[in-house]
Structure to design on (395 residues):
């Protein structure tokens, strides 16, 4: 059975062109880029090219790019650096809908005596910029706001967020893990100090990421050891991963128009097809500012996990939008923050497409999913034929 992969916000397939660039560096050109000999030096030059490619995608200087292992590392490094470089400032501002890479660090920092303010979102997942203005204090070291949400695809107004933070004297970090290759950004005009991306979300392999640190911003490394990355991230470089990320960035920049026309049209076809075929369905997220590849659909009165299992039988890979993790009945923190009613939150499914999806993929889902929902609603205690109709609690 063919796999219909629509879980690209979780991870992506390595692009064959990316893999091809990487392959010689596993077994033929395996030198250490820090070595003095020519063999290692050759790899060093390829890393320089990869850094230039990433910098070109970001429109920043190559020296502003630090390679690391993943988006989580970039987020942690930025937040910790901002606090370590400003010891008199012990407050950060972030949002209630960040990825755990930011949220769990913020909670950890609170336990260590720092203070954190978590901005709320409205029912479409949007921020209130006045709330942000009010939250920034004289001792705010950093504002860390994600560029786009991984569950709903809602895109935050990072330009405005960064301007507000700068005016009030705070550093700014944005988690752009879901944005690279999906919407264009330009670090010459976007006034953030830190920006984190991850290779495996952009058709490069897992285990590589990059953190932009603006020139002139004080930086405190997270990893101490060797002098790699000009002393800013110790540890022998993941050369193959970095080469892959460089190539993936080059392809991502060339494909951004395709992403916002062809991939977006596929997403819209899927969304419209399902909305037309399944009553009591709604879209989670901001319809006007959304990643072009993402739709989070809430099917009332069904369990997301049951939908996923039944879709799996057709080879369809989607995600329950991180809802109901590991058997708990709690909907995801993002849907809770948005106040999505209980009966919708539990039936939320995220489809995230990529340039490797086809119209045929979309049409399989439009054909197979409506009968699945119908069947599940028939057997659901909360379904239309059921006895128990819970009040719509906003969890
Ligand atoms: C918005 C966001 N931030 C951070 C991460 C973490 O990235 P990584 O898996 O590379 O650590 C993810 C991954 O799901 C994400 O979606």
């Amino acid at each position: 059975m063919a796999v219909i992969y629509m879980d690209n916000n979780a991870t992506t397939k390595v692009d064959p062109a990316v893999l091809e660039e990487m392959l010689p560096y596993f077994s033929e050109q395996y030198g250490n880029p820090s070595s003095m000999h020519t063999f290692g030096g050759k790899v060093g030059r390829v890393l320089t090219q990869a850094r230039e490619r990433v910098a070109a995608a970001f429109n920043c200087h190559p020296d502003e790019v630090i390679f690391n292992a993943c988006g989580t590392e970039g987020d942690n490094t930025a937040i910790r650096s901002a606090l370590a470089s400003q010891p008199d400032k012990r407050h950060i501002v972030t949002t209630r809908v960040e990825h755990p890479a930011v949220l769990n660090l913020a909670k950890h920092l609170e336990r260590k005596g720092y203070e954190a303010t978590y901005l709320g979102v409205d029912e479409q997942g949007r921020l209130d910029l006045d709330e942000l203005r009010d939250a920034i204090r004289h001792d705010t070291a950093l504002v860390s706001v994600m560029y786009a949400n991984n569950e709903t695809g809602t895109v935050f107004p990072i330009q405005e967020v960064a301007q507000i933070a700068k005016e009030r004297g705070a550093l700014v970090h944005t988690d752009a893990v879901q944005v690279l290759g999906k919407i264009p950004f330009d670090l010459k005009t976007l006034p953030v100090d830190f920006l984190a991306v991850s290779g495996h979300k952009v058709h490069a392999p897992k285990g590589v990421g990059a953190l932009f640190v603006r020139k002139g911003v004080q930086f405190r490394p997270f990893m101490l050891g060797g002098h790699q990355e000009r002393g800013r991230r110790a540890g022998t470089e993941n050369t193959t991963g970095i080469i892959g990320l460089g190539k993936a960035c080059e392809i991502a920049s060339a494909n951004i128009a395709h992403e916002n026309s062809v991939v977006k049209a596929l997403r819209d076809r899927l969304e419209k097809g399902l909305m037309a075929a399944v009553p009591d369905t709604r879209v989670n997220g901001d319809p006007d500012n959304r990643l072009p590849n993402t739709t989070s659909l809430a099917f009332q009165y069904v369990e997301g996990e049951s939908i996923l299992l039944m879709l799996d039988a057709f080879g369809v890979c989607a995600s329950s939008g991180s809802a109901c993790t590991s058997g708990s009945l709690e909907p995801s923190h993002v849907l809770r923050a948005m106040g999505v009613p209980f009966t919708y939150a539990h039936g939320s499914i995220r489809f995230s497409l990529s340039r490797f999806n086809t119209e045929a993929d979309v049409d399989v889902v439009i054909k197979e999913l409506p009968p699945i929902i119908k069947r599940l609603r028939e057997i659901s205690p909360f379904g239309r034929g059921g006895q128990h109709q819970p009040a719509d609690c906003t969890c």
